[in-house]
TrEMBL record:
Domain called Helicase ATP-binding: residue spans: 133-303
Protein name (Swiss-Prot/TrEMBL): RNA helicase
Domain DEAD-box RNA helicase Q residues, every copy: 100-128
Predominant place of localization: cytoplasm
Alphabetized UniProt keyword annotations: ATP-binding, Cytoplasm, Helicase, Hydrolase, Nucleotide-binding, Nucleus, RNA-binding
Length: 487
């Protein structure tokens, strides 16, 4: 087993023992309440004083070793972060490492101000490498891969803000994202970073955002989903695509590989001038997708990860062995306390399953939020906002939220259903994006996979083989071993 792999495999039988339930609910409940996403989580841990070994003697027969283990796991998952990020930014092997400072990246003063105002001290590796390429004159195209949560969005947002000429009141940068939520989020990053650029304006080309359809947009940057962007370029003529000089495709691999997205992305691409600068970003690029991108993008610079670099060491991957579907629900209920230590996302394969799971959890008295594709956009926006503000701790969702969503307090991702492709094989890229909702920018995270059949065990093996990372079952009965790994 890889030295850095942890595992938390919970056999359902174990999961229903009183001591286990103590582990995953009572103890955690004690620290759950006052956690506030806006505050330093370490401070909360200290304030709430997770009891040391020995506990408070509240009547449950609790194995001291289990308590000690639980405390360590909690502390590990909540380790804050700022120190760890700084350590990683100094470690040459970390994706957060850079030799340069933001000042050395020659950003405009108002953008530097924006960056520092967001609390960024140093660039990550992708920011250090991609920004000079994106800002070079004459302009260059770029296809860039970097692990989830390592600052790609920040990188291309800075590139767009640097690129635009605020005196020109027409759309110059177009950024396309696969989902409504992601487009909103990228827009928020651009707004925050561009806080000190008062003349740079942004418009959201997303469903439900009705613009005056007779007048061309004056906003220099437009961020949106492909269908609405196409409408704005062709049907409503709010944007003159020939005047676009920077085009960003976020989550570029899914935009190229998924049929609906691909057709729309290609149609937008065809509308652009041949010399428009093209920037493609993702945490994953399957070989065939990369080849396609290289064919479509003229003379691109390419920043690509080796397969073994794609996973983040800071995300510890577990699997939970369940005997059948119903057991998954029991195991999840028993994990509920754990889910609410900070925040958690639970992924299901279908909208129907997500709906069922959310309502079943609510029936059991747990508080969860649901976000899936069939909901009205206003509802979706409200749910994601509540989750981001920390008012919802647990989000049950589908692949609609598997990519890009950035909530730093998500410490745990649960794959209630493992991600599979149409043939039922492991969907490695989706797996990586899903677990990447935790472990943001050097933070620690946990990913728990629910395994309920030989077939799903096979999928776990395929994922392990693909990334060459062990996803380990670790028996809670083997506490000593578990403890060693938690350190
Ligand atoms: N240089 C930096 N210093 C500190 N924090 C940063 C820096 N760059 C980005 N971040 C923060 O790190 C988090 C992840 O960044 P971002 O969302 O840009 O990652 P990403 O690579 O686009 O992720 P994904 O692959 O999931 O789309 C965000 O909360 C962002 O504010």
């Amino acid at each position: 087993m890889a030295e850095d792999s942890w595992a938390l495999a919970v056999d359902v039988q174990e999961a229903t023992t009183p001591s286990f339930q103590f582990q995953f609910s009572k103890k955690i409940n004690r620290i759950r309440g006052p956690l506030n996403v806006k505050e330093d989580i370490n401070a909360n841990v200290v304030q709430n004083k997770i009891p040391d070994e020995g506990g408070e003697g509240d009547g449950d027969k609790v194995d001291l070793a289990e308590q000690s283990l639980l405390n360590k796991l909690i502390r590990h998952s909540l380790v804050k972060n700022r120190n760890q990020v700084e350590v990683q930014q100094a470690d040459p092997n970390s994706p957060l490492f850079s030799v340069k400072t933001f000042q050395e990246l020659r950003l405009k003063p108002e953008l530097l101000q924006g960056v520092f105002n967001m609390g960024f001290n140093r660039p990550s590796r992708i920011q250090e490498n991609a920004l000079p390429l994106m800002l070079a004159e004459p302009h260059q195209n770029l296809i860039a891969q970097s692990q989830s949560g390592t600052g790609k969005t920040a990188a291309f947002s800075l590139a767009m803000l640097s690129h635009v000429n605020p005196d020109n009141t027409w759309t110059q940068c177009l950024c396309v994202a696969p989902t409504y939520e992601l487009a909103l989020q990228i827009g928020q990053v651009i707004e925050q970073m561009g806080k000190f650029c008062p003349n740079v304006k942004l418009a959201y080309a997303i469903r439900g955002n009705r613009m005056d359809r007779r007048v061309k947009l004056q906003e220099q940057i437009v961020i949106g989903t492909p269908g609405t962007i196409l409408d704005w370029c062709t049907k409503y003529k709010l944007i003159d695509p020939k005047k676009i000089t920077m085009f960003v495709l976020d989550e570029a691999d899914v935009m190229i590989a998924m049929q609906g997205h691909r057709d729309q992305s290609i149609r937008i691409h065809r509308l652009l001038n041949k010399n428009c600068q093209m920037l493609l970003f993702s945490a994953t690029f399957e070989d065939s997708v990369m080849k396609f991108a290289e064919r479509v993008i003229p003379d691109p610079n390419i920043i690509r990860l080796k397969r073994e670099e794609e996973t983040l060491d800071t995300i510890k991957q577990f699997y939970v062995l369940c005997r059948e579907k119903e057991d998954k629900f029991t195991a999840l209920c028993n994990l509920y306390g754990c889910l609410t230590i900070a925040q958690a996302m639970i992924f299901c394969h279908t909208r129907k399953m997500a709906g069922w799971l959310a309502s079943s959890l609510i029936k059991e008295g747990h508080q969860v939020a649901l976000l899936s594709g069939e909901m009205a956009v206003e509802q979706r926006a409200a749910v994601i906002e509540r989750f981001k503000n920390g008012r919802e701790k647990v989000l049950v969702t589908t692949n609609v939220c598997s990519r890009g969503i950035d909530v730093e307090q998500v410490s745990l991702v649960v794959n209630f259903d493992l991600p599979v492709d149409l043939e039922g094989n492991a969907d490695n890229e989706t797996y990586l994006h899903r677990i990447g909702r935790t472990g943001r920018f050097g933070r620690r995270g946990f990913a728990v996979n629910m395994v309920d059949s030989e077939n799903s065990m096979e999928i776990i093996k395929q994922i392990e083989m693909h990334f060459n990372r062990k996803i380990t079952k670790l028996d809670t009965s083997n506490l000593e071993e578990m403890e060693k790994m938690a350190i």
